Fold this protein.
Amino acid sequence: MELLDYRFDFKELNIDAGIILRTMGYEVDSPEHFVDLTLEILEKIGSLADIEGGIAVFDDFTSEVETTSFQIEGICVHPGKLIFNYLKQADKGALFVCTAGAKIDYLIHHLFGEGKSVEGYIADVIGSVTVEAAVDRMQDSLKNKMQERGMSITNRYSPGYCGWHLKEQKELFSLLPSGYCNITLSDSCLMQPTKSVSGLIGIGANVKQKPYSCRICELSHCLYRDRKF
Amino acid sequence: MSTTIELLSQCVEFGKINKNSPYPPSMRGQDGADEYTRLALDEGVLPGEILDALIPAMTNVGVKFSQNKIFIPEMLMAAKAMSESMKHLKPFFVSGDVQRKGTFIIGTVFGDLHDIGKNLVGMMIEGAGWEVIDLGADVKTERFLQEVAKYPGCVVGLSALLTTTMTHMETIVKAIKQQSPETKVMVGGAPLSLDYSQSIGADFYARDPQGAVVYLEKLVA
């Protein structure tokens, strides 16, 4: 297993108010009050974010068509038929985790606890955008590394989505060093800190990354389907 | 409808909490839901009439949200203004002078921490005159069952954002129906659909907060 560690400064992720406001739905003419609040909370989160992540690249990665599952160093994961089909050509598997840190969680809870629900919501959105932006960087880095070795990567896929059951987080985390990136799992397999993501990326000569992975989902009615973020 | 009530209704719809609240900028410096509710009570308006004024205001908010004319922040501001008004009405709920339409128990199912949508639905339903028991996120089946037993005649709302946690809804719906067959259960969340809600035995699928309010209104009509 090859382990790639990452740390990001909030500023280098270039998350500005425009991205946050668009994520909240404001394509144009964002209300001034919410612009101001967003800027204020971005400033706060800038000093609180503790963004770290890692990618574990496994050579021992085999697909089993009959069970639509993968064996990763002896651990079996079942991401569901849909994701299996996107990863099955991969020669290696890259397991990624990333977190925006526990302090963002505290801020979100503190704001909601104080009855500042709008501020809490904005902080929540910034936390989500932050961790996704960090994983975007990690994915780009992996892509470049693998390109140097003559390989491509797939999109990233996470437990909880596209039919991949959340309980498989346990299998994924068992493949990582204990306490890796300071992320832990709850009884319900939810990650703590909450602004964390995990998942798999396929690597190989015959795989490719697609522009927008949400479109592969079978849930054509999903309210988030046409969201850009 | 008295002028005070009309102004209160506008404050709730546009999220004007109190005089000091800077939002919305067009109402800066004006009284808000806090002041107008107190004024209405001082003028002798019945608490039930005040509640009746909040309901259409929140309905308008729900409709605008459904139409993408406003987004979650505006909705949260309206809900905060409504809560400010409700603080003055709470004593009348406790004394029985004002009757709530019923009890609504809501929670995000176990394995899922997403609660913004659930919170919005809870706020809208409270604004529609219901007592809302919010169980939070990552709520296990047993907790729903305990609360259903505590509040006979309640309606239950289940929320989930993940495709894999929405499957937990079926477990919860079945357990509730087994314990209390007459209890109505509605479900909602981004990945859900009407077909899915029917397949798991839920009574209603709420596509958005307003849909949930409309369903509850029908139940008590």
Q: What stands out?
A: The longest strand of chain A covers residues 196-204. The domain at 2-216 of chain A is CATH 3.40.109.40 (NADH Oxidase).
